[in-house]
Amino acid sequence: MTEFAARVGRTELAATFAMAARARALRGQGHDVISLSLGEPDFPTPEHVVAAAHEAARRGETKYPPLAGTEALRTAVAGKFHADHGVRIRAQDVLVTNGGKQAIFNVLMALAQAGDEVIIPAPAWAGYEQTVKFAGAAPVFVPCPQDLGFVLQPDALEAAITPRTKLLLLNYPNNPSGAAMYEAGLRALAGVLRRHPHVWVLSDDIYEHLLFEGRAHATLLAVAPDLAARIVVLSGVSKTYAMTGWRIGWCFGPEALIKAATLVQATATSGVSSVGQAAAVAALTGPQDFRATRAAAYQARRDLVVAALNQAPGMSCHEPEGAFYVFPSVAGCLGKTTPGGRVIGSDGDFAMALLEEAHVAVVQGAAFAMSPHIRISTATSEAVLATACARIQTFCAGLR
Predict the structure, then answer these.
(1) What is the largest CA-CA distance in the chain?
(2) 214 Cβ neighbours under 8 A, 6+ residues apart
(3) Using the 8-state DSSP alphabet, how is residue 288 labeled?
(4) 298 contacts: CB under 8 Å, gap ≥ 6
(5) Are 176 and 196 in contact, with CB atoms under 8 Å apart?
(6) Domain 6-44+290-397 falls in which CATH fold?
(7) Distance (Å, rounded) from C-alpha 104 to C-alpha 167?
(8) Residue 139 is inside which H or E element, if any?
(9) Judging by DSSP bridges, how do beta strands 249-252 and 138-143 pair with one another?
(10) Residue 244: how many CA atoms within 13 Å on its side-chain side?
């Protein structure tokens, strides 16, 4: 029997993919399944972005791209951050990656190793834990419960830091909770980090433009520029610009770390699609008015879903401030039995029973290091969401 490398055993297929696959299988059996498991915008990529990719291909921009990204895109990323936050960064300190996920992989593989600890505020996207373990380090989850708005508190961060802490992962607006952190909260975290100069920070800002009620995005680098020597910022075009399949992300930070992360990328994949990078340049430098329109659409969807779920027996749903997820508690459903005879002992039981009996696919909170919750993606139409919520209400009402 083949023995694989230990790193393979330290990771597994994300629950989001597993639930999506199960939903597809049930659809294949003829069931009318509504899948709210994947976080993927249902809006089309803006037409001018698609046109820019086509034009780049017609111009012959189809050769091997520069390892760290085209000059045009790195300059556009730097310009965007300055326009958004008033902080100047150098284009040469930007690394373009195959989606935001590779940026996380590159940074963690460059920084973390066996014996290191990486602090992850929970709830958290499952990819963080998987990549930390793949790098050989240990994830340290810091609970940020619903009654605290799912936001990391400075005293909790202080308590989690040890001499072995290498990195803090921040993700606001947050996947899966939709929680946001603003300048005051980030200043408080910066105060803790100043007392621990060995701790790096990876700020995952991928949902930066998906905020509601006119809220403005805040990021640690802009709030605490004195910590710039150990802050890496991550973003990309997938969420804001509905470009998930284009696979264009980036990170930027201290020169030495970006060079190390670039070496990781050189070993793994080399450069990123030249045509995709041309599309990303058009996204960042072209019209931006649609961002507010789409954020308003996500806000309306949030309002619909939160109101509906809070009427479902046994559920309690916090109101997200951004992103396109809700993360309700299902604590009031535990210990009950479904109409199909299943006992709900965990959020995983709830999610599977909801899929197989009510044909709505969601993801269990355990996949995001916080139970008993479920994550519901609101990145679909209000009509679909209304139907799904009605099914969830009926399912919960039928628990005994």
Answers:
(1) 64
(2) none
(3) -
(4) 210, 212, 323, 324, 378, 379
(5) no
(6) Aspartate Aminotransferase, domain 1 (3.90.1150)
(7) 12
(8) strand 138-143
(9) unpaired
(10) 10
What's the mean per-residue pLDDT of the chain?
A: 96
pTM: 0.95
Name the CA dihedral angle for 118, 119, 125, 128, rounded to a multiple of 10 degrees: 0
Determine the pLDDT at residue 253: 98
CA distances, 359 to each of 40, 116, 362 (Å): 19, 42, 10
- Which 3 state secondary structure label does DSSP give 135? coil
Give residue for tokens 């508190």: 153
Sorted by where each begins, the domain ranges of the chain are 6-44+290-397, 47-285
Does this chain's domain 6-44+290-397 share its CATH topology with 47-285?
A: no
Dist. CA 298–CA 208, nearest whole Å = 14
Tokens 């997200």 belong to 320
How many whole angstroms separate alpha carbon 393 and alpha carbon 307?
11
In the chain, the amino acid numbered 17 is F
What class, spelled out in words, does domain 47-285 have in CATH? alpha beta
Find where tokens 């995005």 sit: 217
Residue with tokens 């916080």: 370
The residues pairing with 167 across neighbouring beta strands, listed in sequence order, are 118, 200
For residue 237, what is the DSSP state?
S
Mean pLDDT across 129-142: 97
